[in-house]
């Protein structure tokens, strides 16, 4: 019988050239004792280098509204949370922020919000059209669930990409955490985005209460099955304004293993070193960049709004402005011997 650590070695060796790991093999890596996990991270780093190279793509994140009609149990801006102030940027403010992002050297922005009924597909389309007229930015939208026709309106206005995490692959867990959402509907949304020709990103949180290694392995296999252009993974961080306040969150090691496995399974997808990773550990984003990630999404929202957009507590960069974050992240990336891309960073699929 091969020992477990020998198994980890042989699976990693195979993974260098072949991303088709079985669920059993994924579980061996997920259950690998912490003192041996470096080999998984190094394998993912080699796959990243071979498949997407040394460039790190920056996406400037504009958090344009923290209103949300939904009530995901883990989220600090869920509609029923009465203890936060709500804000909505105007069209002019969003446009200004986008122009500012471009002047800071970003080639791409992500417009993110809660599910805010004010921002209908038509309203978003109007804003996207204006940004496209005034800049050469690639635009990603991350504003939740819409109908096929609404997604079409947003796409036709010029949106290039859409992010919609499935959060967990377990239908049962999904149901527990999302009182006003349906797992199958979520899948249908992802399917519609794909059909409409968006570059599609999805992903999940690591360490949600009730998550098992089996579920985590299935999350990774679902990413692979969806054949995504982008995959966002971050630890669940318990928020004191929610009923999950007392839960234990995702760990750094498990989150890094999930990023590494996503790289191994998805090969050339764009994978961010997420803000949640940087919140969990001061070096979390750097560690993710050395374990398979090739994207960072620094905040370009004006500083005054940042504290109101806390999906989870202690989010990094709360007291920093866009120019500061741009410089900070460049130094971090270059400190790792990597380079900031000057391209739009479109899909490599
Ligand atoms: N901890 C970590 N990530 C969270 N998100 C929402 N709430 C939390 C939390 N408490 C993530 C979800 C969502 C993304 C925008 O933020 O995965 O899709
Ligand atoms: Fe709203 Fe998204 Fe938070 Fe759910 S995770 S409550 S949809 S902002
Ligand atoms: Fe915001 Fe470092 S990226 S301060």
CATH superfamily: Aldolase class I
* Strand order in space, largest sheet: 2-3-4-5-6-7
Q: What is the CATH class designation?
A: Alpha Beta
Helix and strand content put the structural class at: alpha/beta
Number of helices: 14
Question: Rg, please?
Answer: 19 Å
Q: What small molecules does this complex bind?
A: 5'-deoxyadenosine, iron/sulfur cluster, FE2/S2 (inorganic) cluster
Ends apart, CA distance between termini: 39 Å
- According to DSSP, the number of beta strands is 9
Shape: globular
CATH architecture: Alpha-Beta Barrel
Could you describe the largest sheet, including whether it forms a barrel?
6 strands, parallel
- Oligomeric status of the shown chains? single chain
Can you write the helix and strand succession as a string? HHHEEHEHEHEHHEHEHHHEHHE
CATH fold name: TIM Barrel
Strand content is 5-15%
Number of discrete domains = 1
Q: How much helix, percentage-wise, in residues?
A: 40-55%
Walk me through the structure.
With 349 residues, this protein is α/β, with parallel strands linked by helices. It contains 14 helices and 9 strands. The protein has a 6-stranded parallel sheet with strand order 2-3-4-5-6-7. A 3-stranded parallel sheet has the order 8-1-9, with helices on one face. Helix 5 runs parallel beside helix 6 (148-156). The radius of gyration is 19 Å and the shape is globular. The protein binds 5'-deoxyadenosine, iron/sulfur cluster (SF4) and FE2/S2 (inorganic) cluster. Residues 74-75, 165, 167, 205, 234, 236-237, 239, 276, 311-312 line the site of 5'-deoxyadenosine.
């Amino acid at each position: 019988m091969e020992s477990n650590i020998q198994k980890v070695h042989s699976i990693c060796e195979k993974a260098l050239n072949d991303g088709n790991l079985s669920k059993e093999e994924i579980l061996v890596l997920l259950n690998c004792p912490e003192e041996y996990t470096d080999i998984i991270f190094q394998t993912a780093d080699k796959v990243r280098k071979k498949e997407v190279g040394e460039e790190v793509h920056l996406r400037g994140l504009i958090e344009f509204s923290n209103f949300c009609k939904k009530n995901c149990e883990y989220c600090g801006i869920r509609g029923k949370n009465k203890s936060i102030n709500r804000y909505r940027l105007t069209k002019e403010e969003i446009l200004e922020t986008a122009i500012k992002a471009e002047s800071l050297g970003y080639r791409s922005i992500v417009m993110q919000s809660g599910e805010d009924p004010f921002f209908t597909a038509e309203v978003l389309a109007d804003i996207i059209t204006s940004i496209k007229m005034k800049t050469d930015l690639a635009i990603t939208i991350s504003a939740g669930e819409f109908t096929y026709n609404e997604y079409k309106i947003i796409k036709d206005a010029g949106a290039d990409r859409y992010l919609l995490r499935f959060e967990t692959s377990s239908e049962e867990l999904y149901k527990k955490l999302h009182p006003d959402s349906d797992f199958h509907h979520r899948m249908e949304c992802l399917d519609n985005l794909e059909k409409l020709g968006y570059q599609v990103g999805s992903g999940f949180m690591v360490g949600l209460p009730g998550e098992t290694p089996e579920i985590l392995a299935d999350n990774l296999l679902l990413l692979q099955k969806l054949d995504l252009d982008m995959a966002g993974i971050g630890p669940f961080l318990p928020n004191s304004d929610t009923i999950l306040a007392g839960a234990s969150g995702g760990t750094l090691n498990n989150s890094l293993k999930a990023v590494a496995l996503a790289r191994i399974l998805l090969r050339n997808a764009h994978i961010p070193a997420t803000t949640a990773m940087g919140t969990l550990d001061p070096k979390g984003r750097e560690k993710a960049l050395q374990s398979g990630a090739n994207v960072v999404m620094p905040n370009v929202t004006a500083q005054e709004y940042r504290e109101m957009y806390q999906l989870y507590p202690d989010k990094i960069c709360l007291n920093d402005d866009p120019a500061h974050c741009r410089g900070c992240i460049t130094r971090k990336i270059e400190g790792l011997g990597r380079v900031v891309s000057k391209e739009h960073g479109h899909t490599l699929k």
